[in-house]
Amino acid sequence: MSVSTMVVVGTGGAGLCAAIAAADHGARVHLVEKLSEIGGMLHIANGEFSGAGSRRQAAHGIEDSPEKHLAEVRRISHDRVHPELARLSVMAQGETVDWLDDLGFDFHPDCPGLIHGHEVYDVPRTYWGVEHGRSVIKALEPLLIEHIAAGRITLHLETAMTSLLTDDDVVVGVSVEHAGTRVELLGDAVVLATGGYDANLALRNEFLPEHCADVLVGCLDHATGDGLIAARELGADVSADGIFLPVMGMIPDPERPQHAVDYRVAFVEMAPAYRTPHEIWVNREGDRFVAEDTTSPEQRERALIRQPGNLMHVVFDDGVLAAAQVSLIRNPADEWTPERFAEACADSPWITRADTLEELATSLQVPAASLRASVDQYNAVGAGEQPDPFGRTTFPTRLGEGEWYAITTTAASILSRDGLRVDTGLRVLDVAGSPIDGLYAVGEILGNNVFAGDNYVGGMSITPAMTLGRHLGRTLASSLEDQ
Q1: Cα gap 11→137, rounded to integer Å
Q2: Residues 306-335 pLDDT 10s
Q3: Which tens digits make up the pLDDT trace of 42-63?
Q4: How many CB atoms lie within 10 A of CB 449?
Q5: CA 126 to chain centre
Q6: In DSSP terms, which residues pair with 182 in a beta bridge?
Q7: Using omega within 30 degrees of 0 as the cis cutoff, is the peptide bond preceding 112 cis?
Q8: Cβ atoms 136, 44 nearer than 8 A
Q9: What are the phi and psi torsion angles at 218 (to 5°)?
Q10: Contact 452, 245 (CB under 8 A)
Q11: Backbone φ, ψ for residue 428 (5° rounding)
């Protein structure tokens, strides 16, 4: 059955790529976005994407292949990815990189590179733009505008999907609301590319382990799981893997309980590849719990969610402020110089200050004796008097100089781990495992576990969204198998 008209809901990387590819291949597309602008989470995402065998790798003399990339995805994910969907994406991700290159994507000069915020690939195969996620929007927007001008795509901004429309158990469109008016948009296929649900606390916590219900919300407010909710009302199956791995370094927003400060503004840099750790990390009991200089993001992430309240305090002193060459706090533009950070230590609401370590413990509501023991332990290990129980090897500065400071940071959720179950044709499945006719899904709505297992894998969020979005748009525009 050929598809002449389709409805795509969501304008993040997945939705934009699906709509553009479908229009490229002759379909007419209703593209629905509840916000006033396109892009979704790309507005705050680092926008790192990965692909093997790209022209940019070849230009740098990097030998790589999709098969090597897939093997590394399986290694880092502990072989818990969806085997068919992960392969379908990874095998074409190098092509996605070259496609963006052809579009004039504004690559950062360090690409392809190794990213240390996740477990590190053996080969540089990760890319990002000079404006991070917004670079992706800028590359795709001209294609969208061209299709809109030609009448192939109709963009519906500030238009919220309220439900899916069915006829004899076949999804035939969506009901939407714009400026108080309800409208029905019909199509031969509906593609849900509505992203995740982490800004919907009740829905997010339904999928999180019980002890993680108090982690911070780190995503934008629009990520409320609209597509997942609408599909589940039709009987769609949703994974419930019980997997959660936090984003670390997010700072609690004093103005919004259980929300993080926008990380475009500030976050605590955890990776020693980017900043030598001079401080110690302690939990609510005042105890250290991991090597602060570990090069394994997974090790520190798993250690954090074993701590009470998924919370830690980054403790340092005036000596650290004087010695450290890189600010503890960063943002994607790296505008936090050591001088700016030192100024923030005097008056920022994110930073606790005290004249003595005991006063700091009181302010943080941690046992003073435990905090003192943690500092003494760190200093003793750094002086070579005893081994470190956590295996830390970097001790650049002795703690105990002048005033004391702490930044409290809590584990955060920023992308959804669980999502709609689909087959290899990206058809949404019901709880019996059968496809729901006319309904497809792509992007974060599938859940990141499909492409990253129980870990974070470099580029395996936005790249599958774009790659499989393009694949789905092409496929639906050319033919749709009757099942």
Answers
A1: 10
A2: 999 999 999 999 999 999 989 999 987 778
A3: 999 989 999 999 999 999 999 9
A4: 22
A5: 15
A6: 177
A7: yes
A8: no
A9: -110, 0
A10: no
A11: -70, 135
